[in-house]
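Quarterly update, task 2.4: DQA-bound model.
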Amino acid sequence: MKILVLNGPNLNLLGKREPEIYGNQSFQDYFSQLKLNFSNIDLEYYQSNIEGELINKIHEIGFSYDAIIFNAGAYTHTSVALGDAIKGIDTPVIEVHISNVHSREDFRHTSYIAPYCKGTIAGFGLKSYDLAIQSFI
Ligand code: DQA
């Protein structure tokens, strides 16, 4: 099984960025752990701060991989184009958020990608990614 973990803007700063919300661990450290926990799955990681690069990646792997675990960061709340990209591919996408977006500012309650995703997992810290992968096995 081949799964892409895809992170959007500012998630390269995990560990340094607003640690009271997003925690102290870098994504690189967490991802190494994740690969050990799911050693039977072919897990890949891609991060970009650029909307078009995220769309290109979704197009590139969206007809061949088994799943995409996607934290679109703030683009979740703004990007019609990312929603359209997910709508246009075959690979199922799970929307993930580290924080509970529904307990935060109103603008974070809207997701332009959720209608085209298989489901959403939010609010469990980095464990949200573990839970999303588990949903496929
Ligand atoms: C986030 C929530 C978004 O609202 C925010 O813009 C992020 C991170 C999360 O993982 O909790 O960048 O997607």
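Highlight for this quarter: Residues 27-37 form the longest helix (11 residues).
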